[in-house]
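User: Could you check the structure of this?
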Amino acid sequence: MQYGSFHVVSKTFLSKISILEPISEHLVKSQGGVLYLFEAQTEAKAQDLGSLGLQYDTTFKLGDIYVSVLIVRYLEFDQEPVQPFVLMMHERKTSEVHHTFFRKVAKWFPSLVSSTNTFIITDGEDAFVSAIATYFPNMQRYLDWGHIFSNAKRALARSMITNREEVARYINDLRTLFYKSTELNYHEQYNEILSGGNR
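Assistant: Sure, the predicted structure tokens are below.
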């Protein structure tokens, strides 16, 4: 039997993966091939889940197999620990595959479906957005910072803004906005940026 735990060194990064918690395997047949879903067993029961930040992405490829991971950040704790929540190994990157994944997550953790203080971050891929909207219609969805910055750089390039220092200034403006802790502070900083006050 495998066990796994993760040591959190900051609110953003993990270090040292060790084997501590039981992992159970679920096998699902689909048109896209065979999906192996690994549900990470946590101490939190489904009815206790809340104050969660989730993130989902297809992170890497192992030979001919893709690996998609749903990670969870437990926001009710001061250190906001992070760990894999559900893993999926799949042969194809299709909408059906991601719908199967989130259908299973909704079945295993029904309290997530009705949760009012849980959000999920993705890269905005249509298949992800569609599956999440189908099985978790009330969950707030956000685009991750990396893809926001990439989209911003592409938009700047289309506007003929390609100078490295100028692009870095725009990205820094975005990052500054994202770190604001209140909506009021966000809008104050936004207006300052528009007026050129921080240039």
